[in-house]
Amino acid sequence: MLPTIIKLGPLTLRSYGLMVALGLFAALQYIVYRAKAKGISQNKVLDIVLYGIVAGLIGARLAYVLTNFGFYSRNLGDIVKIWEGGLVYYGGFLAGSAAVIVYVLANPEINLWELGDILAPALSLGHVFGRIGCLLAGCCYGKVTGLPWAVKFSNPESLAPTGLCLHPTQIYEALGNLVIFISLDRFNRSPHKKGQALFAYLFLYGVLRFTVEFSRGDDRGAKFLIFSQGQVISAVLITAGLCLFFWNSRCNKDQGKGN
Question: Which among 99, 106, 253, 258 would be 20 to 30 A from 69, CA to CA?
Answer without folding.
Answer: 99
